[in-house]
Write a structure and sequence with these properties.
The complex is a heterodimer of chains A (99) and B (150).
Chain A lengths: L1 H19 L13 H6 L1 H14 L4 H9 L1 H21 L10
Helix pairs in contact in A: 3-4, 4-5
Chain B lengths: L8 H23 L8 H27 L2 H19 L11 H5 L16 H24 L7
The chains are: A mainly alpha (99), B mainly alpha (150).
GO cellular component, one term (chain B): plasma membrane
Protein name (chain B): Cation:proton antiporter
Membrane topology (chain B): Multi-pass membrane protein
Chain lengths: 99, 150
C-alpha cells in the first residue's frame, strides 16, 4: 500500500516536471537572440566583463573563484567534511587479530 | 599474503611510466586553471588518480610505507587555509576581493599569461592540494579498512 502510494507520487512528480520543462508552457531550451538577453543577462555580464574584472581568461574559473567564491568555499568545506567523515568512520574500531 | 604485493610485472612497469605523466598533466591542469578548462578540483582529482593507480598497481603494503596520515591531513588543512588566506587578501575592501589583480604587486600580468588573474592561481593550487590529499587519504582509509576475513 505504502509502496504503491510512493510509486504513484513519484509518477505524479515526474508528470509535473515533464509539463513544466516542456518548451510550450515552461522552460525554454537553447535560448538565443532576444531570449538570450532576456533570460541570460547574468551570463552576458560575466562573459563581457569577466576578463577585465577578474583577469582570468577562463570564465568558469572567474565565476567560481571570484564572483561566487563563497560557493567554492562551501564546496571545499563539503569535501573536507566528507573526507573527514569517511576517514573517521573507516578507522579500525576493533583490534581483532591485526595482521 | 600475495595480494599485498600488488599486480603483475607488466602493470607495475606501465604504472611506473604513466604515474609521472598523470601527475604532470594534473599539475598542468591545476596551474593553468585560470587560462584553460579545468582547475583545482579537476586537476586535484587527476593527481589523486595517479595516487590511486599507485595504490592499486603496487599494493597496499607499498602504499603504507610512503603514505603518512599526519602529513596528508595537515596538507589538506593547509590547502583550505591557503584558500581562505587568498580570499582574505583584499579584506580591506571585501571578502573575496581580488586585490592582487586590481593593485597587487604580482599576479597582475596581461590576461592570458600565466602570472595573471590575481589570486586565482593561488586558489587553484590550494584547492588542487586539498582535493589531491583528501582523495588519496580517503582511498587509503578504504584500502586499510579491513581484510575480507583473511
Amino acid at each position: 500500500m505504502k509502496r504503491t502510494l510512493g510509486a504513484l507520487s513519484l509518477l505524479f512528480l515526474l508528470g509535473v516536471l515533464l509539463t513544466v520543462a516542456s518548451p510550450s508552457n515552461g522552460v525554454k531550451f537553447g535560448p538565443g537572440g532576444s531570449e538570450w538577453t532576456k533570460y541570460r543577462y547574468t551570463d552576458e555580464y560575466y562573459i563581457e566583463h569577466g576578463v577585465e574584472e577578474v583577469g582570468g581568461t577562463n570564465i568558469v574559473t572567474d565565476i567560481v573563484f571570484d564572483y561566487r567564491g563563497y560557493d567554492t568555499l562551501g564546496e571545499a568545506t563539503v569535501l573536507f567534511t566528507a573526507i573527514a567523515g569517511a576517514v573517521a568512520l573507516l578507522r579500525p574500531w576493533r583490534r581483532d587479530g591485526d595482521e | 599474503m600475495s595480494s599485498e604485493r600488488g599486480m603483475s610485472l607488466i602493470v607495475k612497469t606501465t604504472a611506473r611510466a604513466t604515474i609521472p605523466l598523470i601527475g604532470i598533466f594534473g599539475a598542468y591542469v591545476v596551474s593553468h586553471g585560470h587560462l584553460t578548462p579545468g582547475g583545482g578540483f579537476q586537476g586535484g582529482a587527476t593527481i589523486a588518480g595517479a595516487g590511486i593507480l599507485f595504490l592499486i598497481a603496487f599494493g597496499f603494503g607499498e602504499m603504507e610505507k610512503r603514505y603518512s596520515h599526519g602529513l596528508y591531513s595537515a596538507l589538506e588543512g593547509l590547502g583550505g587555509l591557503a584558500f581562505l588566506g587568498a580570499a582574505m587578501l583584499g579584506l580591506g575592501v571585501a571578502f573575496f576581493y581580488n586585490t592582487l589583480w586590481h593593485n597587487g604587486p604580482l599576479f597582475n600580468g596581461r590576461p592570458g599569461t600565466l602570472l595573471s588573474a590575481g589570486y586565482l592561481p593561488i586558489m587553484n593550487l590550494a584547492v588542487g592540494l586539498k582535493v589531491f590529499t583528501g582523495l588519496v587519504s580517503a582511498m587509503v582509509a578504504i584500502a586499510a579498512y579491513r581484510r575480507w576475513g583473511e
